[in-house]
Amino acid sequence: MELIISNITIEVIKKDIKNMHLSVHPPNGKVRLSVPKNLSDQSIAMFIRTKIIWIKKQQEIFEIQSRVSKREYVSGESLYVWGKQYYLIVDYSEKSNSLVLTGNTAFLTVRQVSTTIQREKFVTEWYRELLKAEILLKLPLWENVTALYSNSWQTKNMITKWGVCNTATKKIWINLQLAKKPIECLDYVILHELTHLKFNNHNKEFIAVLDEFMPNWVEVKKILNDSKLDFMD
After folding, report:
1. Rounded to 5 degrees, what angle do the CA atoms 200, 206, 210 make?
2. What DSSP designation does 176 have?
3. Cα-Cα-Cα-Cα dihedral of 185, 186, 189, 190, to 10°?
4. Tens of pLDDT along 23-51?
């Protein structure tokens, strides 16, 4: 069914779940809300009204993104690595591609005939290797600290989530875009997803774990919320 609140159309999907899940989707900012089957329409509407400001903020982000030209991976653009901005300089070579950070500059070497898509693919995989290396270091540390252990993990380029935890298989997915954010954001997402191995929802016990192991998690989460398009699962 659909509800229209504050001139915003929300697609409401009733499922066999315990908690509500609100999301805003690209490219046009469509709003979707999954709710428990037995939840009343009045309760659903009340929940949506508490999230109107957040919904509008996310829709504004999509509107801004739609006006921004796509990255072409040419000299003069910027790259962000662990929260730091680098000035991109592109050089050409017939040898293998490379991306090297020096000072405030990112030197990208590619073939002159390479397309934007090919350059993007190379940079994406460069980010992936960078992120995987940090996860290999940080995940075991957080597992030992919390005594919560995942069975496996994977990086994935996700649009609406910074992290996902499958509590049944104990597998964790980490958003590839975290390689662009300050490193403490990766710590927060790892801790967040590990905590879901013990608590499915964001209840008081869940929050207590975050408070115990990362007292500044609210500030770190705010960094992500500035560009987040969905609540974390």
Report:
1. 135
2. G
3. -150
4. 988 767 889 999 998 889 899 999 999 99
